[in-house]
Amino acid sequence: MTNRAISDRVARIRAGEDPQCLSRMASGWAILGKFQPDAIQGCCMLLPDPVVASPNDLSAEQRGQFFTDLVRIGDAILEVTGAERINYLVLCNQVPELHGHCIPRFAAEDPVKRLLGPFEAYDFGAARVADALGQDRDLHAALRAALAG
């Protein structure tokens, strides 16, 4: 059975049933990432709409738009969180549907962890689950505003 996590998530967003959704982008949807490790809060994702397997399945114009949107999300994270930089990842291995990660990296992180990729440095599966209606309300609102501006 194929992992359809991105397709299922996009369907929930289209139905208005995903409170972590930040904004409609030209290429898809910006969302607050499901997991928010304490040291790097502000993780976001871009989900394409329509969903495809990889960037190679997009036309040249669609590829350009997807990666432009991904960096726009990164700009918003930088503005809102004060992160030093953004790690951009497009993996599509465990979930074989295109999605991009924007992960803030901060000067205050453990220096050893800062040298590692975010998924090597932090246990995302054990991290706090994002809550746009609760603990992450202000972060969510600020990211939405930054993406709208």
Describe this structure in words.
Helices cover 35% and strands 19% of the residues. The chain is α+β, with helices and mostly antiparallel strands. The protein has one domain: 2-Layer Sandwich (HIT family, subunit A). It is globular, with a radius of gyration of 15 Å. It starts with a helix and ends with a helix. The mean pLDDT is 96. This is HIT domain-containing protein. It comes from Engelhardtia mirabilis. InterPro entries: HIT-like_sf (IPR036265).
Describe the structure in brief.
This protein has 149 residues and is α+β, with helices and mostly antiparallel strands. It contains five helices and seven strands. It is globular, with a radius of gyration of 15 Å.
